[in-house]
Structures are given as C-alpha cells and as structure tokens.
UniProtKB/TrEMBL annotation, chain A:
Residues 26-222 form the ABC transmembrane type-1 domain. It comes from the Bacteria. NCBIfam families: ABC_perm1. It is a multi-pass membrane protein. Belongs to the binding-protein-dependent transport system permease family. The keyword Disulfide bond does not apply. The lineage of its organism: Bacteria, Pseudomonadati, Pseudomonadota, Alphaproteobacteria, Rhodobacterales. This is ABC transporter permease. Signal peptide: none annotated.
Automatic annotation (TrEMBL), chain B:
The keyword Nucleotide-binding applies. The keyword Nucleotide-binding applies. Residues 8-232 form the ABC transporter domain. It comes from the Bacteria. Keywords: ATP-binding, Nucleotide-binding. InterPro entries: AAA+_ATPase (IPR003593), ABC_transporter-like_ATP-bd (IPR003439), ABC_transporter-like_CS (IPR017871), ABC_transpr_LolD-like (IPR015854), P-loop_NTPase (IPR027417). GO terms for molecular function: ATP binding. This is ATP-binding cassette domain-containing protein.
Length: 234, 238, 267
C-alpha cells in the first residue's frame, strides 16, 4: 500500500518537474506505438473491411486465423522478429535489431490482427445494413470498402484505439527486439520492468501511473477530435 | 421516350431459398412506359420478384435479360427498399451519394441533392443526420436518392407502407411526375386504392406465381381469378 | 483535419529523437548494469571517444549469443570458461580482463542455516542445504548462475528439492523473489547494494576468494561479422583499460563500499 502512495507521489513529482528522462521514454513510447498503430491501422482496417465484404473460399478460415492471432503471445512475436532481424537471420543485413524500428515491427504484428478483427466485426454489421443499397447502386468493390470505412470510422477508431492500448502496454516483445537500451530503445514499459528488477517499486509504479495516464490522454484526445466532427457533420 | 435498357425479359425465373421455392417459375416482359404495380398477398413473392428483376437475387432457374445486356444496366435503374437504408451521413450526403459514386464533384453533387430534396418535398435540415428523420421523411429521402441519377427504370417496394395519407399523397405525386418524364416504374403495394390510382399495368402474384396480368383498368373492372377478386375486395381467403 | 493533426504530431515525435554520435552496441550482464557503474562510465566514454555505447542488459548466456550472432559489437561478461570457448570458436578476437567484483551470500537476517559462521562459500552452501532453508537460484544460465553452480559443485552438492527454487530470471527479479520468500540467494555485491527492496534480507557471507567475479571484455570478431564496428570496439577497449577508467572504476562506491577492483593489464 505504501508503495502505491509513494508511486503516485513520485509520478506527480516526475510529471510536474518535467523530468527529462521521463519525457524521453514517454515520447519514445508514443513514437513507437503511434507509428505502429498507424501502420497496423493502414493494414488492418482495410483488411477487416475486405474480409467482411468479400466472399471467398477460405473466408471462415481467414477469420478463425485472425481471431487466433489476436491471442498471439507477444513474447513469441518478439522471438520471431528477433530471429528474423538478427544479424545471423534472413533480414540481418538491414541491421534493425535493437532499434525503435524493430519495436514498431513487432507491435505492428501484434496489433494488426486485433485491429483487423474488431474492424471486421464493425464493418460486417454496417455491410449488412448497406449491402442492398450498395449493390443496387452498382458501387464498385473499392467504392464499397471506401464507403464502409468512412461511414464506420468511429467504430474503426475504436479498433485502432484497442490496438494502441495493447501496444502501449506491451513489454514482452519490445524488450526482446528493442533490448531496453537507455537513450535508444527504452520505453515506459521496459523501464518499468527494469525498475521492478532493481526493486525500486516506487519508481516502477510511478512510471506505471504515467503509462496509464498517457493511455487515457490519447483516448480522450481522439474521442474529443471525433466528437467535434460529430457536432458539425454527423 | 422508352428506355434503352428495356425490354426486360424474364424466362421461367425461379428463386429457391433453403430448398423452398419462393418465386416462380415466372415469365414476363417489361417494356413500354408507365407504372406497373405488383400486387398479391403477403408471401406471394412481390419483393422477390422486384429484387430478381433488379438483379439483387441469385436466380436458381431461368433467366432475366435486360436489353442493355451488360451488367452496368443496374446503374441505370434505381431501387427504393421497403425499409429505407440509412447511411450514417447527413440527409444531403445520403441523397447525393449515388452521384459521388459516379465521380461527380462534391459541390455539384450537393447542389443536385438539394434540388432532389426539393423535388420530393423533403423540407428538413439537410445537414442533420439522416437518423433523425421521421418515417415519411426517410421514404422521401430514399426516393430523392433513387431519382438523383435520373434512372430509366425505378423499382419501389411498398414505398408507402406505414405512411400517413399526406405523405402517401406526396409520394404518389412524385411518382406520377417521374412517370410523366418517361421513367418506367415498377412498384409493389398492399394498398388497393393506391394501385387503382397509379397502375397502368398490373402483375398479380399468388404463391410465387404470376397468375394474372393486364392493364390496370381491365384488372380492376373484372379480375379473372378468384384470388385477385378476393384480394381487391379485401376478402379473407381460406 | 484529424489526420493532418495526427501526422503533424507523428513527424514531431520522429524529429524529437534523431540520433547523432557513433553508436556501439555492447551486451553486458545484469549484474554490471545493476551496479550503476555504467551510468558513471558511459558519459565519460562518449566525452572522450565520441562513442555512444548502447547497453543490452542480458544474462551472460544471452550476451554471448548476441555476440555470436553479430547483433552486438562487443560483450562485457563474467564467465571465464564460457568466454574462452567464445574466443576459441572465433566469435571474438580476444578476451581482455578489465576488473572484478565479488559475489555475496544473502539470506534472512535471522540466518536459520547459520551461514554467517561458515569458513568458506562452499561450507555456507552446505549449511543451507543441510537446513533445507529456501534458496532462490537465478536458474537462467547467467554468469552469476554459473558461479553459483560452481560453488555447489565444490561443496559436492547437487542442489534439488523443494527448498531450491530456480526462478529463471534476472538478478533483480530473483532478489525480489528471495525478499518475498525470506530465502537465501547468491548475488553479486553491486546488485545487492543497489537493490531497494531488501525487506528482511541481510548480507550473511562474503570475502572467500572463490567468490571473486572477473569481468572481461570481448570485441566481436570482424572477420566473422563484417558489419561490426571494430574500430569503435578497439577505441572502447583502449578507454576501458586506461588510467582514467581505472580511477573511475576504483573510485565507484555505493553506501561507502567500494564495488569494483580494476585489474586490466597492459597488452
């Protein structure tokens, strides 16, 4: 209990004094996870919509795989990316291991299935509503997907936010592929793991609270942005 | 003016769903001008017939052939569903949507959308979300959306179900005006009075089969089948 | 508008973290990183050589693996036999001893096994085994784990049973576990002194030469991995054996205790 109070107090102190170390790892957390979320959304949202709209032979299979991939243990993803990016691995020449890029790659792999799966659910419902109209209006495949993505944008934002939430709090994969290098690949979650290892629960908790606050702030900011949109247009 | 995509010829069209025959076999030719009203009791296959003509249903047997032949004939038709499809957009964007698909610039599409709303007598805040509209207003929105591409053939499935007299009259006015401009209209209705007012031709369906066809005047003067007679008179069939 | 904002924010994030100096990746053991010595040395290294040393903190086993795969430019670990095999296999050009610190036996302040009175490290271990007192082992193939196993072997004991708990984690996590269970644990002095969650634990046994812990520097062989920064690794080695490094290493203290003993020899 004492640790929690101490952690809250320390978190407040770190934030109020704009601790440069904290600012650095917080920014890097954001940089890695926001980038991963944008990339994963660019892949996952259209993929979810495409699966919802098209009937193809392995559709059920694809959906089952997608749902299974949602539960992929990050450590396994981390290991696979690690082995691929290692200098002795197939993509070793790129020299990406232990860089923020490697962390982004791992996070993209972790959250793309989540974003695709949630967007598939949302788009499927919308598609059920729109199906007859879009077919009747002779909309092309691309037009159908574009329309569904646009009209389902708020549900899709939720999908992206779910991916963001999972990525920002993820530690297993990015620890392995990033290496938790100070001033290079250390982010909030790996710093928390490090401080816990040092037995400094106060600082670890403080960083944890900052992480929670960050996740809430990003969610609120996006909902406010989409809120203004609703006020004026929809 | 007769539409270039007509005639539409249905040859022994049959629809089956889950092993059950829901329509057909039906053979007919749709051509000329005017309003064709599809009548018949619930479950007779009115909606299925309209959807099959428009190309929304998979036909299990027989075929439906438009004069135009190519698949893009559907873009020259329009369909108003019994329950209007509400897109998650503003009223104006819903109406203008078909033009956006056609690649019309947003500004022009909206201007034409406003004109279409005016034409169907839809006097609401066009920037409001379409979900706030009443039942009658939604039906007018759907009608405006269907008319905005100036379709050559217009299908309507029970366009006035659940509407009050005033809304019904307005929609009938719009439909008559469209017919007079040369739009070929095929609609289903339960409302015998409406059929009497609008029908140039009648298609009477019973149990998935087309059991009576003819001009509206002849049909209402003396229906040839007991089923049609009972339907017009409002009798309860055993 | 939303996308534009997001894009602007994203670009700002990227720009905020642009890198500058020459970077060198070095795999080091948790015990070295936890000592806090790195925080003293790295800024000085950057100042003197312009090299930004990026530390990958892992166990000795993984550190050597990273070197073998060519994923780091140099390795600083403490497991002599494994290091020599590493050089033997051509993974490093050579092995250079830099400094040593020592291991300690930590346990519940009450010392139920009486390890405090032991005459040697192996006797202390034998007493713990005799008392069947709970003992937390790293169990992760790290240098510390290997050193611990060596002492069990010298005591003629094969540790096994309910009382022997191999956690398979780093030093900090193992110390946390020991603190939570009031168990004995074999730790390096630096990690122990820097550990904040001591709870009911106390330092019980130290000073046996068998507990000395030699750190050696291994530059990864550029003949095996052409991309490694051999020049930077050489510059770092020269700095690590310099008089300046000696002063910093010898002068490093935690709670008034000297941690490391510099013993690099001129080549």
């Amino acid at each position: 209990m004492n640790d929690i109070v101490e952690g809250l107090w320390q978190a407040a102190r770190l934030v109020v004094t704009l601790d440069p170390g904290l600012a650095e790892i917080t920014l890097r957390s954001l940089q890695v996870t926001v980038t991963a979320t944008v990339i994963a959304s660019a892949i996952g949202l259209p993929m979810g919509a495409w699966i919802a709209v098209n009937r193809f032979r392995l559709r059920r299979f694809a959906i089952a795989i997608l749902n299974a991939l949602m539960g992929l243990p990050p450590v396994v993803v981390g290991l696979i990316v690690y082995v691929l990016l290692s200098r002795s691995g197939p993509l070793g020449v790129l020299g990406l291991l232990f860089t923020p890029t490697a962390m982004i790659i791992a996070q993209v792999i972790i959250i793309t299935p989540i974003i695709a799966s949630i967007s598939h659910q949302a788009i499927r419902e919308l598609w059920a509503d729109y199906h007859d109209l879009l077919i009747s209006l002779h909309a092309t495949r691309a037009q159908r997907i574009k329309t569904l993505l646009w009209d389902g944008r708020r549900a899709l934002m939720t999908a992206s936010l779910a991916g963001f939430g999972r990525a920002i709090g993820e530690v297993g994969a990015i620890m392995i592929v990033g290496g938790n290098i100070d001033h290079a690949t250390r982010v909030l979650t790996t710093a928390i793991a490090l401080e816990t290892g040092k037995g400094d629960f106060g600082l670890a908790l403080a960083l944890g609270f900052v992480l929670i606050a960050l996740a809430i702030a990003v969610n609120l900011a996006l909902h406010m942005l989409s809120g203004t949109e609703r006020g004026s247009r929809w | 003016m007769v539409s270039a995509i007509l005639p539409l010829v249905l040859e022994d069209v049959e629809l089956r769903r889950q092993g059950k025959r829901i329509l057909g076999p039906v053979s007919l030719t749709l051509e000329g001008e005017g309003i064709t009203v599809v009548m018949g009791p619930n479950g007779a296959g009115k909606t299925s017939l309209l959807r099959a003509m428009h190309g929304l249903e998979r036909i299990n047997r027989g075929r439906a052939v438009w004069q135009g032949g190519a698949e893009d004939v559907r873009a020259r038709q329009a369909f108003v569903f019994q329950t209007p499809v509400l897109m998650r957009r503003s009223v104006l964007d819903c109406i203008a949507y078909p033009l956006i698909l056609d690649g019309v610039a947003r500004r022009d599409a909206r201007a034409r959308g406003e004109a279409a709303a005016e034409e169907v007598g839809l006097h609401v805040t066009l920037s409001a979300p379409v979900s706030v509209l009443s039942g009658g207003e939604r039906q007018k929105m759907a009608l405006a959306r269907a008319l905005i591409r100036a379709p050559e053939v217009l299908f309507l499935d029970e366009p006035c179900a659940n509407l009050d007299l005033h809304s019904t009259a307005e929609i009938e006015r719009v439909l008559t005006a469209a017919r007079d401009r040369g739009t070929r209209i095929v609609m289903s209705t339960h409302n015998v009075g409406q059929a009497r007012r609008l029908a140039d031709d009648i298609l009477f369906l019973f149990d998935g089969r087309l059991i009576e066809t003819g001009s509206g005047d002849a049909f209402f003067a003396g229906p040839g089948t007991p089923e049609a007679r009972a339907h017009i008179n409002g009798d309860l069939l055993p | 508008m939303m996308f534009k904002t997001a894009f602007a924010a994203l670009s700002a994030l990227w720009l905020a973290t642009a890198a500058g100096a020459e970077e060198l990746k070095m795999a080091v053991t948790t015990s070295f990183a936890n000592s806090g010595l790195a925080e003293v040395l790295l800024p000085e290294i950057q100042k003197d050589t312009g090299i930004e040393v990026q530390l990958l903190v892992v166990g000795t086993g993984q550190a050597l693996k990273l070197g073998e795969a060519g994923d780091v430019d140099a390795v600083l670990v403490h497991a002599k036999a494994a290091e020599e095999a590493f050089v033997e296999a051509g993974n490093a050009t050579h092995r250079r001893e830099i400094m040593y610190n020592d291991f300690v036996v930590v346990g519940p302040a009450g010392d139920p096994a009486g390890a405090k009175a032991a005459g040697s490290a192996s006797e202390a271990f034998a007493l713990i085994e005799e008392a069947q007192a709970p003992f937390v082992s790293r169990g992760d193939d790290s240098g510390t784990h290997k050193a611990e196993l060596k002492i069990w072997a010298s005591a003629g004991i094969e540790p096994a049973g309910d009382w022997y708990k191999a956690v398979g984690q780093g030093m900090g996590a193992a110390l946390n576990t020991a603190a939570g269970m009031d168990a004995y644990i074999f730790a390096d002095r630096a990690s122990w002194l820097n550990f904040d969650n001591k709870a009911g634990l106390d330092l019980l046994f130290q000073g046996d030469p068998a507990l000395f812990n030699q750190y050696a520097y291994l530059p990864v062989n550029p003949e095996k991995h052409a991309h490694v920064k051999a020049d930077a690794a050489k510059a770092l080695e020269d700095w690590l054996v310099s008089d300046k490094a000696k002063g910093l290493i010898e002068g490093y203290q935690i709670g008034g205790q000297k941690l490391f003993h510099f013993n690099a020899e001129a080549m």
